[in-house]
Structure formats: structure tokens, C-alpha cells
User: Fold this.
Amino acid sequence: MLHPPRDFLDATADEDDNSLVLKASLGDAAFLLTADIGADGEAYLLDSDTDLRAPVLKVAHHGSRASTSTAFLAAVEPLTAVISLGEDNRYGHPSPQTLDRLGTHPVFRTDLHGDVQITTNGHKLWIKTQRGRG
Assistant:
């Protein structure tokens, strides 16, 4: 468990910045699960000197514009990303800015791919989706 801090982020304007962030590792494989954190939560993690590197990133807050900053991506160094979101959601997630920041990394989205299952033996990753790119 990497976040939230014991006393939470009291100064944050958004309670989502106190969401639970987990990192699960096996061998060379790691999964960073960022829940709904935004800029303040990311800043806290970046300042904590925690090793955030993970080949798999579950993108925060459904791919909103306020999360997954360039600095955060540089610290995580993901090989692939997963965005959990509903089809035709009223917020317009994921934001084009977040998708641009993810660049050329393969991105799996639940609105397009359905369920996304990633397994590992600690060295390799296997990704299986419920449906194609839609």
C-alpha cells in the first residue's frame, strides 16, 4: 500500500486524492493501481521517493485530465496502461490530454475492450480482453 498517508492529505481540495494506491509485484512484473487520485495524490507519491516503476499502470480517475501527469508517467515508466471507464460516460473520459500523455504505450480501455485480464509469471505479461477495439 503506497497511499494514502496515515493522516491523509488534509489540504487537498479533492477527496479522491486520498484514494487507495496499491503496487503489486512478482519478479520483474509490477502493477500500479492508482484508484481515483489526481494531481495532489500524484504529487505526494512523487515526493515520497517511493519506487513507482511498474510495467502495468491502471490509469487514475478513469483517465481524467487531472491525473496521469507527465512527471508521474516518467516515474512509473509503464509499458502498458489500463483505463477503467464506462461507455459514453457523461464526463467524456478518458480525456484526450491523458491519452496524448500516454503516447505510444498500448492502452486498454474497458469501454472499448470490456474486461481486461493481465497475467504474469514474473517475467512476461499476457493480456486478454473481452472484446476487440470496438
In short: The radius of gyration is 14 Å. DSSP finds four helices and seven strands in the chain. Strands lie at 22-26, 29-33, 56-58, 80-83, 107-109, 116-120, 125-129. Residues 39-47 form the longest helix (9 residues).
